[in-house]
């Protein structure tokens, strides 16, 4: 045991925090590098719209529809027929009955309407539609051509 001052019988009471700071800096760097890699949800091509973003108190429940018609609740695939039952079970413990619909813009309108009706039948009070902000003054002519055909 080391003594402070050499001949004194008192122990040194200083805490060495250098290893603690080193570990915290390493953890900070790890989290900074991995945080952008953790994406939530399913990758879909959202339709463009000009509107104000919705605010939410809780983490919202997101229902996604991919190009091929696959339906996901968060990251888990479900069939359209089972969607209402799954949503009821998920939202049992939640205070707000709020769901955001995240659908690819190329999904047929009938599929989107069917998913929306299943969501409403599950007792969802608020259904929000997720869109991407529209580029002001810029349009993608290839998308306009595909829509016109």
Detailed description of the structure:
The chain has about 150 residues and is an alpha/beta fold. About 35% of the residues lie in helices and about 15% in strands. The strands form 2 sheets. It has a 5-stranded mixed β-sheet with strand order 4-3-2-5-6. The longest helix is centred in the N-terminal third of the chain and has 17 residues. The protein starts with 17 loop residues before the first helix and ends with a helix. The relative contact order is 0.15. The C terminus is likely disordered.
Question: SSE layout and pairings?
Answer:
Blueprint: H1 18-34, E1 48-49, E2 61-65, E3 71-73, E4 76-78, H2 80-90, E5 98-103, H3 109-121, E6 126-129, E7 132-133, H4 141-148
Parallel strand pairs: 1-7, 2-5, 5-6
Antiparallel strand pairs: 2-3, 3-4
Helix pairs in contact: 2-3
């Amino acid at each position: 045991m080391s003594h402070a001052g050499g001949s004194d019988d008192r122990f040194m009471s200083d805490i060495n925090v250098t290893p603690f700071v080193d570990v915290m800096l390493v953890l900070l760097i790890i989290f900074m590098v991995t945080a952008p890699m953790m994406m939530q949800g399913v990758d879909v091509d959202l339709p463009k719209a000009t509107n104000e973003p919705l605010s939410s108190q809780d983490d919202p429940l997101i229902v996604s529809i991919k190009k091929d018609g696959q339906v996901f609740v968060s990251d888990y695939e479900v069939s359209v027929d089972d969607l209402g039952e799954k949503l009821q079970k998920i939202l049992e413990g939640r205070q707000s009955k709020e769901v955001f619909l995240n659908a690819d813009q190329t999904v047929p309108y009938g599929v989107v309407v069917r998913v929306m009706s299943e969501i409403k039948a599950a007792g969802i009070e608020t259904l929000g539609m997720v869109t991407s902000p529209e580029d002001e003054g810029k349009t993608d002519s290839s998308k306009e051509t595909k829509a016109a055909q």
